């Protein structure tokens, strides 16, 4: 073993990255979506309108361990981001044994160096839990392929269920496993028959994990399934070229170009080996089936750049098959890009506009905005917002004030609905709000949120008074997010 592949050297690198990400996670303000997921942790449920409940469970655990602040909210995500390396390394050992320890190191470093993991390790969203549990699933499936015993099917079933409890797109790599099993039925029927008891146990265990999410949806009019499935309703094939270009450019950005080249190269190698190598075939199925779904979706609608991160663990394992001659430069480039993104997010050194500076647009100036909103509010007034992100941010930075959410989505939360009286409504001029729930709506003025003179957002303020005769549907959509 040559010195350049020393596991200790790369372990030090991974520890350094984890330490840097912990520091950034503790300093960087929460984004509106993170503040929104934080509220999920205060209203535990088996499901939510936007996603399954795993991200809420992680935030709840992180706040118990680290406190109700940015680091606490993100703590479990940062640790999981570092932890995926262990499962990816082990997956390479079993799925691609000829890649050796050096291949496992390549896979870990490539995954950690992607901009996607750099971001998801410090900003808690459902993408980090789903990547973590899919990495566990890869490890368990590697053990199955290596013939370690039927009990590993149970681990795989548990991991698959928890991944689906994290984000619905996890079903795509799981479907890739089903496709792989169909392929095995052609060439390895005797082996597949021996796997049936373990496979059945895995299916039952996975179904038990997902059952609470299905139960919650059944009780709430299938709201979450309808919301996510409804994305397929809009179909604009005339914009296919635009959507496909956005998909490709988004992945080049989140992988970084150098690492993207190695990921693609790795898939080519796997495809060449798939006919004779069960591990390569499994990785190809778990990667290419979701990729085909995303491409098909992009023919008629936009694919958000973060959706394909569900295949990144498989792409990283596939990269273990590629020679490392230029890989170190690709990984180093990815790490540098991630560090530059952190620096810009923390300090805003480049004078970018809110359109191009995501941290400015989403994270800057919330506390200053809250102080100026309070200047317009009376002692007993509530503060409301017309969108969930603004409401969640104000609830976080104004713990001593009654902050109110006013959207139909809030009716699905187990939060107090006893809101009355007068208050201040905060609303972006591009949005609207239901004025029928108020007896009076009086414009107060416009405030600017931003950082160092750069504008992130303008919001209009209104003095409002809630009606006393609200309908049940209207009252259910108005909830208290924080109280004195």
From TrEMBL:
Source organism of this protein record: Komagataeibacter oboediens
Chief localization: membrane
Locations listed in the record: Cell membrane
Pfam families named among the record's database cross-references: PMT_2 (PF13231)
Name of this protein: Glycosyltransferase family 39 protein
Transmembrane segments: 41-61, 73-92, 104-124, 131-154, 166-186, 198-218, 252-271, 278-299, 305-324, 331-352
Keywords: Cell membrane, Glycosyltransferase, Membrane, Transferase, Transmembrane, Transmembrane helix
Chain coiled-coil ranges: none
Domain called Glycosyltransferase RgtA/B/C/D-like: residue spans: 50-216
Topology within the bilayer: Multi-pass membrane protein
Record-linked InterPro entries: LipidA_mod_glycosyltrf_83, RgtA/B/C-like
The keyword Protein biosynthesis belongs to this UniProt entry's keyword annotation: no
């Amino acid at each position: 073993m040559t010195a350049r592949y020393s596991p200790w050297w790369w372990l030090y690198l991974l520890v350094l990255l984890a330490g840097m990400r912990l520091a950034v996670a503790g300093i960087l303000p929460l984004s509106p979506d993170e503040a929104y997921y934080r509220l999920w942790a205060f209203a535990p449920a088996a499901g939510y309108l936007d996603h399954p409940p795993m991200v809420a469970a992680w935030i709840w655990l992180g706040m118990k361990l680290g406190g109700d602040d940015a680091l606490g909210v993100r703590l479990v995500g940062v640790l999981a981001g570092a932890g995926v390396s262990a499962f990816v390394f082990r997956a390479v050992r079993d799925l691609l044994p000829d890649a050796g320890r050096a291949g496992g190191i390549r896979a870990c470093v490539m995954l950690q160096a992607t901009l996607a993991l750099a971001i998801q390790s410090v900003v808690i969203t459902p993408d980090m839990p789903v990547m973590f549990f899919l990495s566990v699933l890869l490890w368990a499936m590697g053990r199955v392929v290596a013939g370690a015993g039927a009990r590993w099917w149970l681990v795989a079933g548990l991991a698959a269920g928890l991944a689906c409890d994290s984000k619905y797109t996890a079903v795509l790599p799981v479907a890739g496993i089903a496709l792989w099993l169909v392929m095995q039925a052609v060439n390895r029927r005797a082996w597949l028959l021996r796997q049936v008891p373990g496979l059945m146990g895995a299916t039952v265990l996975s179904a038990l994990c997902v059952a609470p999410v299905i139960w919650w949806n059944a009780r709430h009019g299938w709201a979450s399934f309808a919301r996510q499935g409804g994305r397929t309703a809009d179909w604009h094939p005339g914009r296919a070229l635009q959507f496909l270009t956005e998909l490709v450019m988004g992945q080049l950005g989140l992988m970084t170009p150098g690492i993207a080249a190695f990921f693609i190269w790795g898939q080519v190698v796997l495809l060449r080996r798939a006919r004779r190598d069960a591990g390569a075939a499994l990785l190809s199925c778990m990667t290419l089936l979701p990729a085909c779904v995303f491409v098909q979706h992009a023919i008629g609608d936009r694919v958000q750049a973060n959706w394909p991160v569900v295949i990144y663990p498989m792409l990283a394992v596939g990269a273990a098959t590629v020679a490392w001659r230029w890989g170190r430069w690709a990984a180093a480039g990815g790490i540098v890009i991630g560090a530059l993104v952190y620096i810009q997010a923390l300090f805003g050194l480049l004078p970018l506009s809110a359109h191009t500076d995501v941290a400015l647009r989403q994270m800057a100036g919330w506390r200053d905005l809250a102080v100026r909103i309070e200047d317009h509010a009376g002692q007993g007034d509530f503060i409301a917002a017309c969108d969930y992100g603004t409401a969640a941010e104000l609830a976080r930075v104004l713990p001593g004030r009654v902050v109110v959410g006013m959207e139909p989505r809030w009716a699905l939360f187990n939060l107090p609905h006893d809101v009355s009286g007068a208050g201040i409504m905060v609303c972006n001029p591009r949005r609207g709000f239901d004025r029928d729930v108020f007896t009076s709506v009086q414009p107060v003025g416009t405030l600017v949120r931003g950082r160092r003179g750069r504008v992130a957002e303008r919001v209009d303020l209104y003095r409002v008074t809630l009606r006393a005769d609200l309908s049940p549907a209207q009252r259910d959509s108005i909830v208290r997010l924080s109280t004195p």
